[in-house]
Structure formats: C-alpha cells, structure tokens
Amino acid sequence: MSVIIQIKGREAIPVRAIPLLTHWRFMSPDIVAHVLGGTAGSNVSLFGDLQAYRMEEGEVQPMRQDTWANELLMELNVAADRKLSHK
User: Which helix (H) or strand (E) holds 33?
Assistant: First the structure.
C-alpha cells in the first residue's frame, strides 16, 4: 500500500503519515507542526522548505505557516497537557 499522492505534478505524502514513516525517531507530530509553522528554529533546517497543502472546495491550496504555528501547535499542546494530567 502506498501513501504517495500527486499534488501539482509532484509526489507528496499526507502530513499525518510523516511520523509513521520516520518511525517517530525525529519527526513526531509536534516537530512536523513546528517545521511547517516555521517555529522550529535552526535545528531543523535540514528539512528545507516543506510546504503543506489541503483540499479546499475541490482545489489544492497551500496551507499558511501561521495556521500551523497558531492553531495546530496549540491543539497539539492542549492534547499533550491532557495526556500528562491523566497520568
């Protein structure tokens, strides 16, 4: 089974598959969100310019970095806090 899809003539994988494909070694969901949000600092420059896309009204649209930085990272932090408080 392949997770590769075509976006604008280029091969891509779903963002949610990145941690699985890296065996959670260096691309956990929070690191992926930091890289895509531009908030990871210089220690992740080896990933280059990653761009996330989403389907919007049947069209492939790039996701803005601030969506990752402000909304999705906040959701990940809330989920992590909940997990820690249940231990």
Answer: helix 29-37
Q: What is the pLDDT of residues 22-64, one digit of tens each?
A: 888 878 887 888 888 877 766 655 666 778 888 888 788 888 8
Quickly state the pLDDT bin for 3 (edges 50, 70, 90). confident
- Residue 39 CA to residue 4 CA, distance in Å, equals 26
Burial grade of 78 (CB within 10 A; 0-12, 13-18, 19 or more): exposed
Range of the domain at 34: 5-85
DSSP-derived secondary structure letter, 15: G
Separation of alpha carbons 39 and 85, rounded Å: 25
Pairing of strands 53-56, 10-12: unpaired
Domain count for the chain, please give it: 1
Output the six-digit token pair for 15.
């963002």
